[in-house]
Specification:
Blueprint lengths: L2 E4 L4 E13 L12 E10 L5 E6 L12 E10 L2 H8 L2 E5 L3 E5 L3 E13 L2 E10 L5 H6 L4 E9 L21 H5 L6 E3 L12 E8 L2 H5 L1 E4 L9 H4 L5 H10 L4
């Protein structure tokens, strides 16, 4: 059974992590980053029956060694697994000008385990992949490392956004009083507690921190030896095998 331990940084949360991408509207497959509509991070805490679906703004992860800063936000929070499966599956919708539009099912680019840890005055999201077992072209273009850590912070919805940045006010998170007070006068707060991630519209900053989570944070990951037959992408997320097998098991675009 997968385990996460820490010798230094207090662990605030542990769970399963999935990286998924969706081809652009109207495309059945993606063959490179230019064909990607969205990059998702899905977090499933071990101690809660919920699934948090995050969208990464630049459609790839920041480089942990370059300390890039990328925006992300909580898109949906699911208590019902069937609703999550429907969100990730293929669907169609109709527009006035283009008629029926097809949205392909999401593809898995990685499955693993994660931890949210407190480190000095900030928090980290650290993970290690279980699948695919070897890096493929999809992982390289999406910048999904075998293991990495990112400083993660949540934006105060009551602070002003830079011009042309951030979600519009109607879609920003509305935190309960206790969480809102945790910001004080600050524009950003650590994800402490991780309850900030339970609110749709929570705006996040991901900052590349390190690829050596053991040395930097003292976090020890003991991942499961997953295979196609045991992968949660198929058991839990119910993604179709015909489109999910190659990205998950070989890191190939599909």
């Amino acid at each position: 059974m997968a385990q996460v331990k820490s010798h230094e940084s207090p662990l605030l949360e542990r769970g399963d992590i999935f990286f998924l991408y969706r081809p652009r509207v109207g495309l059945d497959e993606a063959h490179g980053l230019e064909d990607v509509e969205r990059l998702y991070i899905l977090l499933r805490p071990w101690q809660a029956q919920e699934y948090r679906l995050l969208i990464v703004g630049r459609k790839k992860l920041p480089d942990p060694n370059e300390h890039n800063r990328f925006w992300a936000f909580v898109w949906r929070v699911f208590k019902d697994r069937e609703a999550l499966n429907a969100e990730l599956g293929e669907r169609q919708y109709t527009t006035r000008t283009r008629g029926v539009r097809h949205v392909a099912a999401a593809r898995p680019a990685g499955e693993g385990i994660y931890a949210i840890a407190r480190h000095h005055d900030h928090t980290h999201l650290a993970y290690v992949l279980e699948l695919p077992q070897h890096e493929g072209p999809a992982e390289r273009e999406l910048n999904i490392k075998r293991k990495a850590s990112y400083v993660i912070a949540v934006k105060n919805p009551q602070s002003a956004d830079p011009p042309a940045a951030g979600l519009d006010p109607d879609h920003e998170a509305r935190f309960p009083k206790k969480l809102q007070e945790a910001f004080g006068a600050r524009r950003f707060s650590p994800i402490d507690p991780p309850d900030f991630l339970d609110y749709e519209g929570a705006e996040l900053m991901l900052i590349g921190a390190t690829g050596d989570v053991e040395r930097e944070l003292g976090i020890e990951f003991k991942a499961d030896a997953e295979t196609e037959h045991s992968a949660d992408v198929f058991r839990v997320l119910k993604l179709p095998r015909d489109v999910a097998r190659e990205p998950l098991c070989r890191g190939q675009w599909k």
